Amino acid sequence: MDFHFRSFADLNQIIVNNLAKNPSNIDLVVGMPRSGLLAANILALHLNCLLADLEGFLEGRLLETGFRLRGKTKTFDECKRVLILEDSIHTGNSIREIKDRVNEKNLDKEIFYGAVFVLPKSKSIVDIYYDICPLPRLFEWNLMHHELLEKSCVDLDGVLCRDPKDHENDDGENYLKFIQNVEPFLFPTVKLGHIVTNRLEKYRQPTESWLTRHGIKYGKLIMLDLPDKKARIEANSYASHKAKAYLETESVLFVESSARQAAEICKMTGRSVYCTDSKEMINPNFLEKNRGRFKRYARKIFNTKEQ
Predict the structure, then answer these.
(1) In this structure, is the dihedral angle defined by the CA atoms of residues 128, 132, 133 and 134, taken in order, positive or negative?
(2) Which pLDDT score, from 0 to 100, does residue 72 have?
């Protein structure tokens, strides 16, 4: 499954590239909750115009402008041309509900509706859109809260917490302190299907305790079954260990911190990998996809013969 991915940087660049698509002389940009407000804020900054959240707009309130627009702003009643913006549209149900709520107010304003990302079938729901982003799609700002993670493999060090520093990575007392005390990094709000890490199996108990203490829910913790750091370095199986777990769990995505390992996992499995360090989705090419399919087919045949 290839994912269409958009990062924070993509969001900003796409908005900038499509500034000319916006209706002229917009007085106010309104962001729909929740990530629509992110897109609206970016657009309002580029247009140097006023900003409101949806609830505030329906109640006649504007957000504070800061120093740049101080003394040059309009009142709510003076804002006559309004763009209500969403980051993305799928079915269009949410924007239809918002249109109904806005229409009930019978405001003396010319109101336009827009979205940064639409599907081919949903672009007619809005007055303007900036980019067609088909399914399956993922955004950097919702990845760690997406239900897709329940069917995914997620790296630990570098994703759920930072990587250990050199002095902490001693396979001894300092490393144990790191595992026990490191703060969460990217915090998921959904259950993770599988946490796949190159931490050694002997550190399972403190790792599980850390995950429990920080409320990180997961289906299975897959660790590297080698005796010590020296054996791990000699085996040099960092990416292959993760690729094996990716295939065996039949997950739909792997979230990896290292750009090098992410590329290797993608190549070995023929499946998509999201790299948190480079903020990019690495999708397999044609040969990698078919190599991955062959490996999965061969594994199923082998397992059937064993039974």
Answers:
(1) positive
(2) 61
